[in-house]
Specification:
The protein is α/β, with parallel strands linked by helices. The chain is about 40% helix and about 25% strand. The protein starts with a helix and ends with a strand. Bound molecules: S-adenosylmethionine.
Length: about 250
């Protein structure tokens, strides 16, 4: 998917804001090197500097990396695919917020992270867990059906058991793994859900003309309003999965 870094920074800063909770699992050690995997526009990469001597942000999107460099010119950022990481035994911590659900092959992802970590390195990550955005995707599926389109989720939201098995298969020792609900209010009042869809369901919306897109978004809002509109803002049904794991090579 093509990312819109300006829309991300202006309307969806909550993603990185919530990611700050994950920082509490990162040990502080000024000798260590941290890789921020899927760094987006760099908000958490900058926070990670407080925990390490060196931090590198990598992301698959050129647009996101360009924005991260513009936001934080003193930090290193690179375009890199998480499934083709060029590192071997280099990082004390691989940190990642809100990225893994965009990646269909978690087995290959974890192999890449394992190879990138130093012999006693840590993986600290959070992403969409089982039944994340269940109401959102059900509503969107039904609306797109009215327009003759069959919505197939591109997200990968594993269960704790599924992800634990993959971690262990790839040589990780699990320190913590759990999932939890995180109902997430969207900014911008009435426009919040449409903004969210334009960012995160962009690929599907782009199949339609602008006029159709506006109608789809209206119908989508009507479908989910009773469950997700709380009278003053949209609050969507996020559920997250958190992991702290280490390797012993
Ligand atoms: C929701 S954003 C999260 C950004 C940042 N971690 C934050 O908390 O704000 C998801 C990011 O994952 C990146 N991403 C998705 N698939 C990727 C892949 N295969 N390799 C590297 N980055 C990827 C996207 O480009 C996007 O910047």
């Amino acid at each position: 998917m093509k990312w819109d870094s300006t829309l991300y920074d202006n309307k969806h800063s909550f993603v990185a804001e919530y990611g700050k909770g994950l920082l509490e699992f990162v040990p502080v050690d000024k000798e260590q090197r941290i890789l921020d995997l899927g760094c987006g526009t760099g908000v958490l990469t900058e926070q990670l500097l407080k925990y390490a001597g060196y931090v590198l942000g990598v992301d698959g999107s050129e647009d996101m990396v360009a924005k991260a460099k513009e936001n934080y010119p003193d930090i290193d950022f690179e375009v890199n695919d998480a499934l083709k990481l060029p590192y071997s035994n280099e990082w004390d911590v691989v940190f990642s917020n809100a990225v893994f659900h965009w990646i269909s092959d978690h087995d290959l992802l974890l192999k890449n992270i394992y190879n990138s970590l130093k012999p006693s390195g840590k993986l600290i990550c959070e992403f969409g867990g089982p039944d994340n955005i269940l109401i959102v995707e059900a509503g969107f599926t039904n609306v797109l059906k009215e327009f003759g389109y069959s919505y197939k989720s591109k997200f990968n939201f594993p269960t704790v058991d599924e992800f634990s098995r993959l971690l262990e298969k790839n040589g990780f020792i699990i320190d913590k793994i759990y999932d939890f609900d995180r109902p997430t209010p969207l900014q911008d009042g009435e426009n919040g859900l449409a903004n969210w869809a334009k960012q995160f369901l962009k690929t599907e919306l782009e199949e339609f003309s602008e006029e159709q897109q506006n109608q789809i978004l209206k119908n989508f809002e009507s479908r989910v309003r009773d469950k997700l509109w709380n009278g003053k803002e949209w609050s969507i049904d996020y559920r997250r999965l958190r992991v702290v794991a280490h390797v012993e090579k």
